[in-house]
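Give me the fold.
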Amino acid sequence: MNKIALIGSVSLEILKRQIEYIQSIFPDMSITLISCKKIENLFNVEYRHVNGNSFSKDIDFDFSEFSTIFVCQNNNVVQNYQNVYEFLIHNGINSFKIIYPDLKIKIFGKNTYFLKKKFLSLLEKINFFLKCYGKNYFCPFCNKTSRKMLPTGVKSEFFKKYNVIGGGYRENALCPHCGSFDRERLLYLFLKENTSIFTDKNSVLHMAPEKRLTEILKQNRQIEYYTCDLYSQDVMYNMDITDLKFEDNKFDIIICNHVLEHIDNDIKAMKELYRVLKKDGKAILQVPLALNIQNTYEDRSVIDEDERENKFGQKDHVRIYGMDYMDRLRSVGFSVFEWKTGPEVRERYSLIDKEFIIWVTK
């Protein structure tokens, strides 16, 4: 068997580089890309789509035809890929190889096992130490410092052209220890300084919840905590944000971070969030915001993913918000406020330059 199975759970740009690298060192072997993303025929290799929104230990897959199995990673935080490893182990694969975009030497031997969530090989530890050890940045989720954060985001001239904050490629974004995002750290700082969400009794709705923030919020047993998403299986409720199945005036705090840019009828979603928010409650409604555009641009006739990327910055965005975003929020009844951090805080926590929190009350 001269076939390679490549498990792809990274960005398309990184995946492309990794495929090219594998082809260069194994020119006589065919590659089959296995992914939850619908990217068929994109890289001129055989493609197998795994049903579901993400890999999980409940998905069955036949690996018998493959002699070598690679797992693509885009950073050195092995625990972030536990779902991929559980998927492999569930299907009888307990030895495989890891490939990174930056260190091509990361080809592990036959008996390298990744059965424990927090296990790092010696080579990974050395590489992690050399790249990230230091005290330049601090993560409030894991309370650890780093010399640098890890990159993430979509590389696109679109975000530069329109000066979009909260989107695009960022060089120092992901905490190398726990994987927290820059946007998530900003959200945490706002909640800590401006709400009692971490200490007092509150009813909280968290749309498309961020992992690290969810872990912390669950530690406060005084809050009534509801997590919602349309598709994810890792939340309490699968709900459409434009049709929430909650009574009026239910929540003290709503967290809706970078969701509305994905929603076809965002005004209807805003009305639903207004309806379920209590009087004097607070809602955080972050979106990618184009500082160079006054009026929000959207075109519902655009359904092709490539065209959406060209017009809105990402394949899964349906609009690009301009500086009138706050007026859209006011149009459904919200009072709108802004919260900004100083340059020292942005530098210390490695936050996105110029990004500020948009929060509303009822």
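The chain has two domains: 3-125, 151-361.
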